[in-house]
Amino acid sequence: MAEHDHHHHHHGPWTHEQLQHLENPEREKLMPREPVLAALNPQLGEKIADVGAGLGWLTFPLAVAVGESGAVLAIDPSQDGIRAIRDKAQQQQLPQVETLERSAEDTGLPADYVDGILWHTMYHDVGNRPRAIGEMFRILKSGGRWVIVDWVKENTESGPPITVRLSPDEVRSEVETAGFQVTRQWKAGPVTWGLTVEKP
């Protein structure tokens, strides 16, 4: 792959610079967590899949919300990211965090298993989207919700090239084709949009 400025990429090993970038406090301004958590609305005892979890930016707030009776399945193909999440979960004594070094296309989870799914700034980054969307449909319980947050399709100071970004309408059409229903579209932050999607 060409070496371009792709900080957010989940493919291959993370560089130290990328790890730093992902834990950067500026990120909270750029990508506030509160609206995302409010949209997903995790409840005590629920199972939530955090797909493309990175270093656990949202894994840990989700883990606190679902409690020890619940589970957050942090899924990422990056071994380094998964290891970082596992270590932090042990330090913070959060046994409800389970890590899976897997891809969105093949999570290894049982069917109708999770109450909620989060994809945070990774939709544009998925290799085989139809397959990954089908996989989300398979693992989500009926009535379960999937929150998708991604970069606005305009030039912003940071983030992926505009050529790989998707508008909410493009994403809506892809997920509806797979049988999902879009229940809400919202502004997630200064540079991101959100979609809340349900499995009928």
UniProtKB/TrEMBL annotation:
<protein>
    <submittedName>
        <fullName>Methyltransferase domain-containing protein</fullName>
    </submittedName>
</protein>
<dbReference type="Pfam" id="PF08241">
    <property type="entry name" value="Methyltransf_11"/>
</dbReference>
<dbReference type="InterPro" id="IPR050508">
    <property type="entry name" value="Methyltransf_Superfamily"/>
</dbReference>
<dbReference type="GO" id="GO:0032259">
    <property type="term" value="P:methylation"/>
</dbReference>
<feature type="domain" description="Methyltransferase type 11">
    <location>
        <begin position="50"/>
        <end position="147"/>
    </location>
</feature>
<keyword id="KW-0808">Transferase</keyword>
<dbReference type="InterPro" id="IPR029063">
    <property type="entry name" value="SAM-dependent_MTases_sf"/>
</dbReference>
<dbReference type="InterPro" id="IPR013216">
    <property type="entry name" value="Methyltransf_11"/>
</dbReference>
<dbReference type="GO" id="GO:0008757">
    <property type="term" value="F:S-adenosylmethionine-dependent methyltransferase activity"/>
</dbReference>
<keyword id="KW-0489">Methyltransferase</keyword>
